[in-house]
Amino acid sequence: MKYYLIAGEASGDLHASNLMRALKACDEKAEFRFFGGDLMQEVGGTLVKHYRELAYMGFVQVALHAGTIIQGMKLCKEDIVAWKPDVVILVDYPGFNLSIAKYVKTHTQIPVYYYISPKIWAWKEYRIKDIRQYVDELFSILPFEVPYFARHAYPIHYVGNPCVDAIAQFKGHYTETREEFCARHGLNPEQPIVALLAGSRKQEIRDNLPIMLATTKRFEDFQWVIAGAPGIDPEMYKQNGGVHVVYGETYPLLSHAYAAMVTSGTATLETALFRVPQVVCYYMKCGRVVSWLRSLLLKVPYISLVNLVADGQLVRELVAHEMCEQELSKELDKILLDASHRTRMLAAYDSKVIGPLGEPGASEHAAEMMVSKLKIENYHPATVDC
Question: What's the pTM?
């Protein structure tokens, strides 16, 4: 069968490439054409346009490059119609992809599948109308999305989480001992390691890392190690007060960490899967104003995936004005020095995060379901009234 995939950023490229490999395993005649990136291109097929040419974030950047984005969208629509795939598979990237879904459903008979749901449970809940009308099947990587969409009378499929897959694969091959890791990075194997995951974007690192570093001075019995983010100039980590930096080794670092300070994002879920006690950090300027706006705009009580999956405050979130040296020190006291607090957090990881996320195989489960549905004779996706 012919599969047309659309991914608009680096994470989408990664998830789409894994899905493509799984589709090839299920369908030996699979053909791919896609908007995506290098990882998808490695799997095979035809790259129509690289996501770098369209990946603009923020209102100003989108406005400045509106012409480019519109042209890219026009090309995508025309290319889908000309190629006539058996299915269009959208991967995250909702601003672009929901527009494509609408076009495909109103101009063709091609089914539209969505892999990795738009986060409408956090904001822009009105998008449920477009999803109902223009998306035939939605494949989720977060278990709490199933009851959320059910409340909107739109059944979806939870297929597993790619973080579970990635960490299981890592653990299956990683054999380095703590002593070997410490020796390689000039660390003391007798001293507990605390990981600093300050984010993957420059602004996140600028905002969060200085506060994290200032707090380390209060805990002399621990050694602190920064996880250098890929694609970030090492110069950004130069003013680190002598704290070690390791590059491209977040998983090995978490394997040997006693605790972690983590900027909100996928890293919070990964830290929980490694069973490392953590505090979630996300500083923003004009913090009290941001906190007020957050209460108005966000539809969920938490910002970290680990708390959202757990459906409760499993780990402390220090967001906006709460992300300060004093509050961070208080929480570090608990996760570093309070044994009972650490035990409760680890037990909650097991029962409320690791358990619900399930076993590895997200891409394989999604691919098997997609191919099975597409092969059903006279398959006609169910329609849902708006």
Answer: 0.88
